[in-house]
Design brief:
Layout (H helix, E strand, L loop, with lengths): L12 E2 L6 E5 L2 H36 L1 H28 L4 H6 L2 E4 L8 H26 L8 H22 L10 H6 L1 E9 L13
Antiparallel strand pairs: 1-2, 2-4, 3-4
Helix pairs in contact: 1-2, 2-4, 4-5
């Protein structure tokens, strides 16, 4: 396993098609730092949003029936929209708050520019799926139950753990990829980079959010 994910040195260079700059693929360490910041923000925001939504759900529970089912579904979708919205909005600007803290940047692999809103939204939806899987897996693995899990719950636990593991190893693929991209970067057509040097000023290091 260590040989499969061994990182080649030096880190791969990246140049957009127009040759306007060159950069290096971001190291996994910086991406982990950025991810920790982003997912901390997302998790706290998700929990905070669930407070008023939980009140709405409790009110709907008093009514019961199909009303509760509809309200519960809508409120859960609203809470998850916070996760998707965070990544969709900030990725479309070229960096999430975590990426800015780690001084890395995300661009379209072909254009070399900040991702389009559609591409960023697609990556946001993928983040929601991983968030649900990781949150569910965490709940099932560390939770305590007075009664044995049902067949459905056993299946949900297995699927959530599998998807969360897939998300983890998909990120680790960056260490093996010839361009320093994770499996999810390739799926979304993105690349995460650092040390952007303009072709017109090769002696100057440029940051996409300002000098």
């Amino acid at each position: 396993m260590s040989g499969l994910f061994s990182r080649r040195r030096p880190r791969p260079d990246y140049r957009p098609r127009d040759g306007s700059y060159k950069a290096s693929a971001s190291p996994l360490g910086r991406r982990i730092v950025a991810g920790l910041v982003d997912w901390s923000i997302v998790t706290v925001s998700y929990l905070l949003v669930n407070i008023p939504l939980g009140v709405i759900q409790a009110t709907a529970d008093e009514v019961g029936g199909i009303v509760f089912g509809v309200i519960f579904t809508l409120t859960q979708l609203a809470a998850l929209a916070v996760v998707a919205g965070y990544f969709a909005f900030f990725l479309s600007t070229g960096h999430t708050l975590g990426m800015r803290a780690a001084d890395i940047h995300v661009v379209g692999a072909r254009s070399g520019r900040s991702p389009t809103l559609v591409r960023a939204a697609g990556r946001g939806v993928l983040s929601v799926l991983f968030f649900i899987a990781s949150f569910t897996a965490y709940t099932y693995v560390l939770g305590h139950y007075d009664t044995p899990l049902s067949s459905f719950q056993e299946a949900a636990r297995a699927v959530s753990i599998a998807v969360a593991s897939l998300a983890f190893f998909g990120h680790l693929w960056q260490l093996r990829d010839r361009d320093g991209r994770s499996a999810w970067d390739r799926l979304a057509g993105l690349v995460v980079i650092e040390d952007m040097i303009p072709a017109s000023m090769p002696d100057r290091l440029w940051s996409p959010w300002g000098p």
